[in-house]
Design a protein that fits this description.
heterodimer; A: about 300 residues; mainly alpha; ABC transporter involved in vitamin B12 uptake, BtuC; 12 helices; about 75% helix; about 5% strand; B: alpha/beta; Rossmann fold; 5-stranded parallel beta sheet; 16 strands; about 45% helix; about 15% strand; amino-acid transport (chain A); cell membrane (chain A); transmembrane (chain A)
Chain lengths: ~300, ~425
């Protein structure tokens, strides 16, 4: 393998990892704080993508410039967080925090199934494609291979910003500290006056919005069609589980690991490309069942 | 079961007893199609077409005065649900003739079941060539071509229009169709052009949302030709991403199923790439576009769905044309008012019918012989998406594997002279 191919595979891996990380981030945040594995995350991702495509299509039809696609991605993400994430937490999850994990999993799975059908009702079964945002940024050629600026530069930049931003938010701001305190010990946090219900609601809205943002950012690069959410939830769960549930920096590193593993596989041995993310997951979990960065759970008495 | 035994015993005892059936109040058809899942890009247009076709048949007095009724079964619910629904529909008498199915896997499951239930079954869309090569059926018929002539047409068109290429890469979906179609295509290509070099074989998983890495790899490999038999969202994503990154400028794409994606791809599919249609299916079919029946259907379909017709629509039309032709032939052959099941099945042998393309003929092994249309994409400006130019229609008789032979062996035994002997009609657009 020569250096050029190595560098090319590196670029591809980073671009892919960035998108996977953004989706996994919301999943791991929700799990870290609320101890709920939200299967409906996949649907929120898909709806974020659908919403972006529809909004962008409508704005372009009204004669707006393609750069408006970018703010519309944020709008879609926030809509997903507030209009879907909020009610899901408030109406459903709030009632089942003290129920067994299996039940919690089944409830979020039910939400996933319902939202899958909602997508089909709202957007039908034909694929959509809306690449205005990607085309607006143009291409860049490296080593004779053309990349889109959107995938090579924008996506990794957004992923890095989110990672640093979330770190800062959780450790340096008051709300962030409230979230961390609630994560540490919900009862103790409540006893010193933290409104844990509010913290959970906020966390879930942010997590859902991150799923929506992932879908919004993915939308210019791929066909939007039924079933896209199911694929993403499997992959982002692999990332989150490999990293250790609730580990934000770990998710970033694992996403990178999986992204690079996959792209090198395509260059060296394409037949294994599908297998690589899960192979990495199996190998890591065999050695460290709690994930790369997870710590063995200390049982409360 | 007991009734079935008695009936069979009677039939065996009285071979001449296959007499006319009583004219039913309605001819009930069951059609399996994808209403959910990724393949609904084919299934939903086919269902919409079937509804229009039934409406048209009934508006013209039905078949010999009997109106047609249709029930749909969703293939997207999985093979198990499909077979139990299929069985229920047939055994409860809610369907006398079945149209099944889109998925090749489902066809392979249903063919023996239809034989068991003794229900005439038209395989109206599935591609696998193996059905009649591995088994004999008396109740199962295919009202269209199969993967072998479809791939052979793509190879022939490629070699006729671009004879000097030397390297090829493939990007197919990782499931039976992606693998099988590449087997046939590559075997035929190597047989007719032994000096061609395969520089890359990629089988990304079915439904992959991203082909960026494959595209980078292909840009580094620079093959002259890139084949993809993908369809639906996978094909759309692959072509869009390839076009965004300029891969469509450096390689010629061969896309045997892209006719079904033309409208969705819009301006993303540039000129100069090879497009196939799984038969002579094209909403601007050069021989048929001025015919009244063709025009009327195209207008009605577009008015009701908002989209132009794609190949599953044509396949649905062929199934209904075969149904009508078979009943009419059985009625005429036997001089009856309404044929029995045996008379209907007997009429299928050598049946010729015409849907929205050229006429199709059912061969002695129950395989349909269908002509194949291939073309080159062009952004002519008449539509907001690519249309076809330099269209060739290949003769189905020459491309279809001879009765009793196995396709992969047969295409492997061809050579360059096969190409020169082919009967082709060429049209500018």
């Amino acid at each position: 393998m020569n250096l050029t191919i190595f560098v090319l595979a590196l670029f591809d891996g980073i671009a892919y990892a960035a998108l996977v990380f953004i989706v996994a981030l919301g999943l791991t945040l929700i799990f870290g704080v609320m101890r709920i594995l939200n299967v409906a995350h996949g649907s929120l991702y898909a709806i974020g993508a659908y919403a972006t495509v529809s909004l962008t299509g409508a704005f372009l039809a009204m004669g707006f410039a393609p750069v408006f696609a970018f703010p519309l991605m944020l709008v879609s993400a926030i809509l997903v967080g507030v209009l879907l994430g909020g009610p899901i937490e408030w109406l459903l999850l709030r009632r089942i925090y003290d129920k067994p994990e299996v039940l919690q999993l089944l409830v979020t799975f039910a939400v996933f199934m319902i939202l899958e059908d909602v997508q089909r009702l709202a957007w039908g079964s034909q694929p959509y494609f809306q690449a205005a945002a990607l085309q607006a940024l143009g291409n860049v050629t490296l080593f004779g291979v053309t990349y889109t600026v959107y995938q090579l530069i924008l996506l990794p930049a957004v992923a890095l910003t989110l990672l640093l931003g979330l770190r800062f938010f959780l450790r340096r701001t008051v709300i962030g500290k409230l979230i961390l305190a609630t994560t540490e010990d919900r009862e103790a946090a409540q006893s010193i006056g933290i409104d844990a219900d509010k913290v959970f609601l906020l966390t879930f809205i942010v997590g859902a919005a991150l799923a929506g943002l992932g879908g919004a950012l993915a939308s210019p690069t791929t066909s939007i069609l039924p079933g896209m959410g199911a694929d993403m939830i499997v992959l982002s769960f692999a990332v989150v589980a490999t990293a250790g549930l609730g580990q934000i920096e770990g998710a970033a590193l694992t996403a990178l690991l999986i992204g690079l593993g996959r792209s090198f596989a395509v260059y060296v041995w394409p037949e294994t490309a599908v297998l690589v993310p899960y192979l990495i997951m199996v190998l890591v979990l065999l050695v460290r069942p709690e994930g790369l960065f997870g710590s063995p759970a200390a049982r409360k008495i | 079961m007991k009734k079935l035994l008695v009936t069979s015993a009677l039939c065996a005892a009285l071979p001449m007893a296959a007499s006319a059936a009583e004219k039913p109040e309605a001819l009930k058809i069951g059609m399996t199609t994808f209403l959910t899942g990724p393949a609904s890009v084919f299934g939903v247009p086919a269902r919409d077409a079937a509804e229009i076709l039934v409406e048209d048949i009934n508006a013209n007095g039905g078949i010999n005065g009997v109106p047609v009724e249709i029930t749909f079964i969703d293939e997207g619910a999985g093979a198990e649900a499909l077979t139990s629904e299929y069985r229920r529909l047939v055994e409860s008498g809610a369907a006398e003739v079945m149209f099944a199915s889109i998925s090749s896997g489902n066809c392979q499951t249903i063919a023996p079941l239809a034989e068991d239930l003794q229900v005439p079954n038209f395989m109206w869309d599935c591609g696998t060539q193996k059905i009649f090569e591995e088994n004999d059926y008396s109740y199962v018929f295919r009202t269209q071509a199969n993967a072998a002539p479809e791939m052979l047409a793509a190879v022939a068109y490629l070699l006729k229009t671009k004879p000097d290429f030397t390297t090829i890469a493939v990007v197919n979906q990782d499931y039976a169709w992606g693998r099988d179609s590449w087997d046939i295509f590559s075997t035929a290509l190597k047989a007719m052009k032994p000096d061609v070099e395969v520089v890359g074989e990629f089988f990304p998983k079915f439904g992959a949302p991203d082909f960026s890495t494959e595209i980078s790899r292909l840009q580094a490999l620079r093959p002259d030709v890139i084949l993809s038999t993908s369809w639906g969202g996978d094909l759309d994503t692959f072509v869009q991403q390839a076009a965004q990154r300029g891969l469509t400028n450096t390689s010629t794409f061969v896309l045997p199923l892209a006719e079904s994606s033309l409208e969705r791809l819009g301006s993303s599919l540039p000129a100069g790439h090879i497009v196939g249609a799984r038969g002579d299916h094209y909403f601007l079919h050069p021989e048929r576009r001025d015919d009244d029946d063709f025009k009327a259907f195209m207008e009605k379909y577009e008015a009701e769905t908002g989209d132009v017709s794609v190949y599953p629509v044509f396949h649905a039309a062929q199934a209904f044309a075969a149904l009508q032709a078979a009943y009419e032939k059985a009625i005429a052959d036997n001089g009856v008012d309404w044929p029995s099941k045996e008379q209907l099945v007997a009429a299928m042998d050598g049946l010729e019918f015409q849907g929205l393309g050229r006429p199709v003929k059912i061969r002695e092994d129950n395989q349909g012989v269908e002509d194949q249309l291939m073309g080159t994409s062009v952004q002519a400006g008449d539509y907001p998406f690519a249309t076809l130019e330099n269209i060739m229609i290949f003769d189905g008789d020459e491309l279809t594997t001879p009765v009793g032979e196995v396709s992969i062996d047969w295409v492997g035994g061809l050579d360059a002279s096969f190409l020169d002997g082919l009967k082709v009609d060429t049209f500018e657009n």
